[in-house]
Amino acid sequence: MTAPSAALALLAGLLSFGTGLSGHAQEPVSPMSPETGEIAAPPEPPPTWRFKLADRPVKVVVLAGSIGAWPKQPYAERLQKLCRNVEVKNLSKVGFGAFQLRQRFKQQVLDRLAQLGPAEERWLVFQGGLNSVGSPERTNHDIREMFVLAHARGFKVVGLTLTPWGDDEDKRWRGPGGLKYLRATTRVVDFVLGTLTPGEALGEHARRRKAGADAPWQADELAEVAVDLYRSTLRAADAPPRDLAAMERALEKDRAWLAARRELAPEALAAALRAEAAAAAELPRWFLRAELRSFDHIHPNTEGHRRIAEAACPRLPASWGCECPTPAPTTSPTTPVPPSTAPAAGQPRPPNLLLLLYPPWLRALLGRPEQPAR
What we know:
This protein is α/β, with parallel strands linked by helices and 374 residues long. The chain has helices at 3-17, 75-82, 98-108, 136-152, 179-193, 198-202, 244-252, 255-260, 266-281, 302-312, 360-365; strands spanning 58-63, 86-90, 121-126, 155-160, 225-227.
């Protein structure tokens, strides 16, 4: 498949399977999970692929949503080029959330492991969950279940976190309301990194752990290698912040925010408002850098995928035989800005012609007008 046709295929997948307002991938004709009521993965033909390279004894399955399915030099392809002992199969799928990716891993890999060929080592590289990030605790539960299944069948796991996303033109990220999506995203990121307790990561789903809700993490529930892409050079850490006073005024008018804190004393409420406004002002610094965006603020372009592969490379096992390039200098600060708009003044970005192919509901979801400007 040529790069242009692959790009069109990716776009077609996004148009048919996009992300809903809740953050869940939507496919109305798919069956529901009897366990949770979540949308299950649509039926796929029986898989026929297998690993073929006998001189590459470390077999790697990459599993992600549409970011991993990027058609032009994706990070999965780059990892195979950087690591001489590795053969990579990229099973990323446009629009799939964590639950659907777990199903796909079982169908494509675990249910037919003997057919995939011999391996000295088997690894799962996981970088999904953005399509279900609106329910972070459920997303973490599905990722944890996938890690447990992988370990039980002899796989080791590399966890790549979600990448930065967001934009002032996306209505989900406007004003202080964008903190909901920042906090949901960091909840999934920090679970993959292993920095949360089971209760923090899983919420009510912690009771479904075999070890018990209050037990420490078990080895099979976490990745052997975890790479933080969210607080990496992909994020616009040097972006101008939003106007702090505007964020404070927005919170003063937010009845739901005030109602949730109605029991606070006036001084404590004022302090909470200042802290929340300061965090909202920092939101643009958690977005994907403008020069690393492809057709929207979610999907990294080819340069972004290069940075993903190069961020992961030094953390990968010695058995992979990786030769990692020296990272290019960057102007991004190395110390992350703590997450805690009136958009910064400047020229508007030129329209993206690919957006003209989006249906009205998807343009609205991305904060675009219903009709393209004339």
